[in-house]
Amino acid sequence: MQAVGRPRQRLPRLPGHYQEWINACKGGPKPGSHFEHAAVLAEVVQLGNVAIRAGRHQPENGHPVKLLWDGVAGKVTNLPEANHYLQTEYRKGWETLL
Which pTM value belongs to this model? Predict the structure, then answer.
């Protein structure tokens, strides 16, 4: 590294997650992790969990069954039993705390 030196800066340096959030709250630019990105990412990750928990395989080849997701309706359309994993049943007395 001493012989070559530091690489030239190509992207602007960011102030950090918390400062980006504060700047956005004050009317500045959207942070890199704004909700429009984070919500979609969270949905994809959770659908992966649903697919794993549903654990259905095609008998002829052993491959997992593809889940068909209706994002507007918020449900799996081709494997109704997978929708069971989209909600949590809370113990009596805890459901009102949400």
Answer: 0.60
